[in-house]
Amino acid sequence: MRRTTARGRVFPQFYSTDRRYARLSVKAIALYPLIWANGDDQGRICGDPEEIKYTCCPNVDHITKAEVPLLLEELAAQKLILRYDSTKGPTIQMLDWWEVHRLQWAWPSDYAPPDGWQDHLRYKKSATEVVTLNWPVSPETSDTAQVSNNSASGEQEPKGFLPTPKRIRKGNRIGIGNSPETSDTAQVSNNSASGEKPSPSPTGFCTDRNKISSQMIEQFRYCFGHVKAKEPRKNIPREPAAKELAQMRDLVDELLAGGGVPLDYIRQAFREAGGQTEKSKHSVSYVAAILREFLGRPKNRSP
């Protein structure tokens, strides 16, 4: 489902020592992170001062509606934002947006980009298609749009997003390590004599039951689908049976009780299970075992 406004945005740490930010007035310093948090996936927001007031800081009495235009001028003067007119009226583009964000998904903006600005897109056009433009985010990316099949045959995961769990062996145990965001390989280190395994970063953990359930069902359909004999890369989606739906409900309860799970881990677990040749591993129980390994959580046992 498309969302036009970002949720869970992280305000960059480097602004604590950024000279442009230091030159702002106290009220502009307070307003900028609130604009940042309400931007869409392309770092854009309506630039009308009244809209800024009632969208970003409606309950901040210290910043009045009459003061917002001057505060926006401050931000523009320090090259933190660009104010321009789009087909929808006054618009703001956060200028540092793509220097900071390495998103997993980025939907198109409702506002046209400023002249010379390059949008970066990766979003689901349908259940089986992912549209990408200038992706991954880098100076070398192409300007041409691409449509790829997001099927069990393997869309390549772009670098620099949610840390990908890598299995690493520690003695007789299997642990999980995080690959560096700019590297294809995980680095294994001895953290301590206790053999404690590193845990994935909590950034990106989902605790929304509906989102986790939907991701499981979607991945089940396409990763455990029936492969056509003459077209080995094309799967016929398979709907989960009643028993499998019950197993997924129990797994969702278990994951939520442990603090949630990154949605990307679910996708990776189903793809690993779907790539196994043994039919017994095309199962929810095998996916559950993979997720427990990824998250470093022991299997729940009934009393």
Describe the structure.
With 303 residues, this protein is an alpha+beta fold. It folds into 2 domains: 13-146; 165-295, no CATH class. The chain has 9 helices and 12 strands. The protein has helices at residues 19-22, 26-37, 49-56, 68-77, 97-100, 209-223, 242-257, 263-274, 284-295; strands at residues 44-46, 81-86, 89-94, 121-124, 129-133, 145-149, 165-170, 173-178, 205-206, 226-227, 235-236, 261-262. The strands form 5 sheets. Strands 1-3-2 form a 3-stranded antiparallel sheet, with helices on one face. Strands 4-5-6 form a 3-stranded antiparallel sheet, with no helix packed on it. Strands 7-8 form a two-stranded antiparallel sheet. The longest helix has 16 residues, at 242-257. It is elongated. Mean pLDDT is 75; it is low at 139-146 and 148-203.
Write the layout of secondary structure elements.
Layout: H1 19-22, H2 26-37, E1 44-46, H3 49-56, H4 68-77, E2 81-86, E3 89-94, H5 97-100, E4 121-124, E5 129-133, E6 145-149, E7 165-170, E8 173-178, E9 205-206, H6 209-223, E10 226-227, E11 235-236, H7 242-257, E12 261-262, H8 263-274, H9 284-295
Antiparallel strand pairs: 1-3, 2-3, 4-5, 5-6, 7-8, 9-12, 10-11
